[in-house]
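Input.
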Amino acid sequence: MEIIGSTKLVGIIADPISHVRTPEVINHSMASQGLNVVCVPLHVRPKNLASLLKGLPGLANLQGLVVTIPYKEEIVAHCHELSETAELVGSVNAVRIDEPTGRLIGGNFDGEGMVSGILNQGHSLEGKRVLLVGAGGAGKSIAYAVCKQNPSELAIHNRSSARAAMLVERLQALFPDVALSVNDGNASGFDVVINATSLGLQDSDALPINPETLTPGALVCDAVIRAGNTAFLSAANTRGCSIHHGQHMIYGQIIQICKFIGIDLQDEHLARILGP
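Output.
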């Protein structure tokens, strides 16, 4: 795709940034549809986040930002307005710049993307026992979206059990018919297990939970995007589980993020280039 003077920009911010695969999907998809839009990675150090956001309204050809680790929660305080989901979960993964006011409007599509990906692969969450690992920015959004699917149970495991307990308390008020609990990392008996942590990005990362506790036949999902299986998905596969790659979450949310920031990317042009 040729970049010209009228090309619109979408930024994606992270620290680190080299592992991010979203630009590949967005750029191939935009080119497939013939849209004059490109997504560029922006490596933002924590000390520079506030100054970057302050200057965003000055870029008239910037459609918005995709936000990923570690800024999904920190960026909330810099937004002038939040979508319903972003406000409920306290996490933002997309920012729209309102013209002509320059106001930053934050949205969150992690949860919708994960659930959409699961459903599109022919799975269901309704009536299932679900274990969610991770109560950070992505985890909170996924928890909210999972509850909307009416599972019989949602248990949440987090390195800080207090953080998991806070999320359970918040969700219980919104979804009184879903059995919610804090989990100690034991996946035994769960129909669906979702890793919403960043563990698996690096080969040296620990596994998010002990795979020996996984129930054979369970659906094991990962939000981490890597070529092929993450170590956790490989362990789950060895255990006799069905596995679901993080790529499906990306595909599930890109259309929604683009719509939120004002780009009409159609589903049939979504380029699936990241593998299974």
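Helices lie at 22-33, 49-55, 84-89, 110-120, 137-147, 161-174, 231-238, 247-260.
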